[in-house]
Amino acid sequence: MRKLFIAFTLILFLGVSVVYAAELTIITENSPPLNYKKNGKIIGVSTELVQEIMRRTNKVYPIKVMPWARGYALALKKPNVVLYSTVRTRSRENLFKWVGPIATLKWVLFAKSGSGLKISNWDDAKKVGSIGTYIRDARELMLKARGFTNLKSAPDSLTNLKKLMADRIDLWVVGENEGYLLAKQNGFSPSDLEKVFVIREVNLYIAFSKSTSDTIVNVWRKAFGEMIDDGFVQKTWDKWAKLISF
């Protein structure tokens, strides 16, 4: 009986070891100030939180930056993929396993300063010539679901900023701080952008591919919970709030 118990315990131990040995693929996109590459280094408030989780769980993996549509597709199809920062919507709820929220942000419509555009509601926004969106991200999907037919998809947010400044689109839907920071980083001024409408405030999460072991996801959840309790999350956000103030 004792030998049977020892054998059973060994099987459980080896099973857990295999789970923890699973290699994770960590994916993010260029979306400042949450996560982006600068001078060859991946930084941002969400990146620091993800890196701290890995440090606390003693499993550190490289972070890959790629276009959102590609990273999202990999997270849907491949096992053990971690995608951040991801908006948790009703349509995505059962597609992933979630850790967070790690961030809250406002989605806004920016016009070019001096455009004279006034947007008071959804119908006003539907009447403008064109709205620049980021292909397949949650904001574009939401506007499509609301019946918008004046959307122009771009492969990244920077392209939309340049199109707005060149009068090739009328509005740009983007995270508020992301828009201001991209302007500041790319030869424009935050004052070149005029916030004309706040779409909504959303929470962002770390999304794990559905087939990822619950054991791994729960380890990350536990580490993140400890980071909230000991103040690491708040300190990180306070630090970045000073860096991105406009």
Question: What descriptive keywords fit this protein?
Answer:
2 domains; alpha/beta; two-stranded antiparallel sheet; D-Maltodextrin-Binding Protein, domain 2; single chain; disordered N terminus; 246 residues; 10 strands; eight-stranded mixed beta sheet
Describe it.
The protein has an 8-stranded mixed sheet with strand order 4-1-5-10-6-9-7-8, sandwiched between helices. It has helices at about 1-20, 45-55, 70-75, 120-125, 140-145, 155-165, 175-185, 215-230, 230-245; strands at about 25-30, 35-40, 40-45, 65, 80-85, 95-110, 130-135, 150-155, 170-175, 195-210. Helices cover about 40% and strands about 25% of the residues. The longest helix has 20 residues, at about 1-20. The chain starts with a helix and ends with a helix. It has 2 domains: about 1-105 and about 205-245, Periplasmic binding protein-like II (D-Maltodextrin-Binding Protein, domain 2), CATH 3.40.190; about 105-200, Periplasmic binding protein-like II (D-Maltodextrin-Binding Protein, domain 2), CATH 3.40.190.10. By secondary structure, the chain is an alpha/beta fold. Helix 2 packs across helix 8 (about 215-230). The radius of gyration is 21 Å and the shape is globular. The protein is built from 9 helices and 10 strands.
